[in-house]
Design goal:
Shape: globular
Strand order of the largest sheet: 1-12-11-2-5
Number of domains: 2
Helix content: 40-55%
Number of strands: 16
CATH architecture of the largest domain: Alpha-Beta Barrel
Order of helices and strands: EHEEHHEHEHEEHHEHEHEEHEHEEEEHHH
CATH class of the largest domain: Alpha Beta
CATH topology of the largest domain: TIM Barrel
Radius of gyration: 21 Å
Strand content: 15-25%
Largest sheet: 5 strands, mixed
């Protein structure tokens, strides 16, 4: 049986989209996710304007401290709570698609978001996570959706233990155990994204090797709302060649709602899982923000992260309370406690980065990034 994926676009396909009952948002993050900042150097180097703006501050930091700023020892937490993330996704589906919503939040190796929301609507809000699976010379991310509530904490403990101390001989048993639950959906997220440099090995080769060993327990590959179209197109081709269903995962990390959603007439999340696992056609809709230039959308996540906000109790909270630096002993400390005041180099970089969000500069960036992407394609 060949799997079929159908893409829709908003607003072009509004009439067809209204034939569905639910919009389903998979793969979104909350403040329970830790996001390593090691990617910053590569990201800045690939965008000439950012490289130019940060060159002098980074040089002055290196001269003052005798070493370069080590971004890999820092991480940030997503600037929304589970309830805020749910509201963002629910609001987009109901207001833009005029459909009922199902939302599966998938923090990195953490199920707290689903646990805190599940009781409010157990049929439509599953307990889920994005599981980090070491697979040398890299690691992969598997979306594990809709864990059975009584077993969820124990399963989470087993998955976390594997991530920390992987033994490949145990991996098949973990996948097989998860697959035993008919309501669980396992998705290979952003399968072709090289999250860290992996040397001579390529991501397609790594993924094919992974699927050759463990693919019987993977139910679908993902097209990802925070990855460029050329990469998603290659993921679609891989799924077609290997005969896997494809589902949409938005991968929201900021305040922008997921850019790619699933459409279904299933009445519950478990029924949606059955549709995918049993080989039904997968219906996906790309929201208008997905057509924005990729680098501009990544910058939007940066702007969201650097914006001061209000904490859970309504108190003013600086962005430095959401960014952490690992000390020599490995203990994390928020930047708000590391600094008596922001170092001048950091203050200068933050000022430059925030200034780019001003409407005239944002419009100029949009044109520049769009031209770069057209040239790349």
């Amino acid at each position: 049986m060949r799997h079929r994926t159908v893409f829709r676009n908003l607003p072009t396909d509004c009439d067809v989209i209204r034939n569905f009952n639910f919009g389903i948002s998979l793969h979104g993050h909350t403040h329970h996710s830790r996001e390593n900042l090691g990617f910053i150097e590569r990201f800045v180097e690939e965008i000439p304007i950012l490289e130019a703006l940060t060159r002098d501050p980074l040089r002055r930091y290196r001269e003052r401290h005798g070493k370069k700023l080590d971004f890999s020892r820092a991480y940030w937490t997503v600037p929304v709570s589970p309830h805020q993330a749910y509201a963002i996704e629910k609001g987009q589906i109901e207001n833009s698609l005029d459909l009922a919503s199902m939302v599966s939040l998938t923090d990195h190796d953490n199920i707290e978001a689903g646990l805190s929301l599940h009781d409010g609507d157990p049929q439509h809000i599953p307990i889920s996570l994005e599981w980090t699976v070491p697979f040398p010379p890299a690691y992969l991310h598997v979306g594990v959706h809709n864990l059975p509530p009584p077993d969820a904490p124990q399963i989470m403990s087993a998955l976390s233990s594997y991530t920390v101390a992987p033994e490949e001989s145990k991996l098949a048993g973990l996948f097989e155990h998860l697959d035993h639950f008919p309501g669980v959906l396992m998705v290979l997220n952003h399968p072709l994204w090289e999250m860290e440099p992996i040397g001579e090995c390529t991501m397609p080769d790594l993924v094919r090797s992974f699927l050759a060993r463990f693919g019987r327990w993977i139910h679908a590959l993902e097209v990802n709302g925070l990855r460029p179209w050329r990469e998603n197109r290659q993921a679609l081709e891989m799924a077609q060649n290997l005969n896997y269903p494809v589902v949409a995962g938005g991968d929201r990390h900021g305040r922008e709602p997921n850019a790619i959603l699933n459409l279904s007439n299933a009445a519950t999340f478990a029924e949606f899982v059955s549709e995918v696992r049993e080989g039904g056609a997968c219906e996906i809709v790309a929201m208008p923000q997905y057509r924005e230039p990729f680098n501009l959308r990544i910058l939007q996540v940066v702007w969201d992260t650097l914006r001061d906000d209000r904490g859970m109790a309504g108190e003013e909270r600086s962005w430095t309370e959401r960014v952490f630096f690992e000390l020599v002993d490995g203990a994390p400390m928020p930047l708000s406690r590391c600094w008596k005041s922001e170092p001048p180099e950091v203050r200068l970089m933050m000022g430059f980065t925030r200034a780019l969000e001003a409407p005239p500069l944002r419009a100029a960036l949009k044109l520049a990034f769009a031209a770069e992407e057209r040239e790349a394609l």
